[in-house]
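YM 10:42: Spermine/spermidine synthase sequence, as discussed on the call
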Amino acid sequence: MGRQRPDTEAITESIDSGVAELVPDLGGRNSWTLRVNGTPQSHVDLDDPTYLEFEYVRRLGHIVDLTAPSRVLHLGGGALTLARYVANLLPRASQQVAEIDAGLIAFVRRELPPPPRVKITTGDARAVLVKARPGSFDLIVSDCFAGARTPAHLTSVEYVRQASAALVEDGIYAANIGDGNGLQFARAQCATVRAVFEHVCVLAEPGVFRGRRFGNFVILASHTGLPMQQLTRATAGDPFPGRVEHGTGLTKFIGGAPVTTDETAILSPAPPSGLWGT
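YM 10:58: structure's back
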C-alpha cells in the first residue's frame, strides 16, 4: 500500500545530489510531491497511480495510453510516477528505471515503495543505453535533470542515436526538457531528435511555445510514425491544454537551430528564480 499521509508533515532526506523532500498534499489524499533541492520533480498519488498532476507527465501518459508499450526504459527516476502509471494500466509490462542518484532511489524505495515488475538500477543514462541490447524497448523516456537542468551529455545527437539503437523498429523515444525566453535550447533539441528519427513532434502549452514563460516541452519521435490525431486531441483536452507541432509546424518552430553534438552540448537553461516559490 505504501506510506500513509502523516497529516501535513514533510519528509526530508540527504541524497547524493543534495536534499530530497516528500511533501504531502493537503485535502486527505495519499499523495506526495517530491522536491529535489527545492525543485518539484514528481507527484505521486499512491491511492490512484493513474492520476497525473504535472502537465508534462500527462503528455507522456498519452503516448503510453495510445501505444501500450510492453517494455519501457525510464531514464531518470524521481518518484517513479510514470512507472507507476504504466504498471497500473499495463500490469504485464516490464519496466527498467535508471537513476543516477543512489540516495534518491533508496529514499523513494523506503517511503513510496515501487510497483511490481519495475527494475530500478543506479547509473548514468548514457551508460545504461550503451549496455542495452539493440531492440530492447518499445518506449524510452528521457526525463533526466540535475537540479532543474538537463545534463549536457544527455542533449546530443549521439545520445539520441544510442536511444534509437535500444528501441524496436517501431519504438518511441520521448524526452522532457525545460526552456523559456528565446527557446533556443528547445528548438535545437527538436532539430537534434529530428536528425535521428523521421517522425517527430513536440508538445507544450501555447504560452510556453510562444516563449512567454518557462515550461516543459515533451518531444516524441519514432522511425515508423506517431498517432498524431489522437495525440493532438488528448493534449488539447488536458486540464492545461497543450499544442502539438509536427511536420511543417515543427520545421517552422525549429527555424535554423543547429543539431547539438557532444562537442557543442550545454546544460539546459535554468528556470527563473522563484518559479516554484523557492
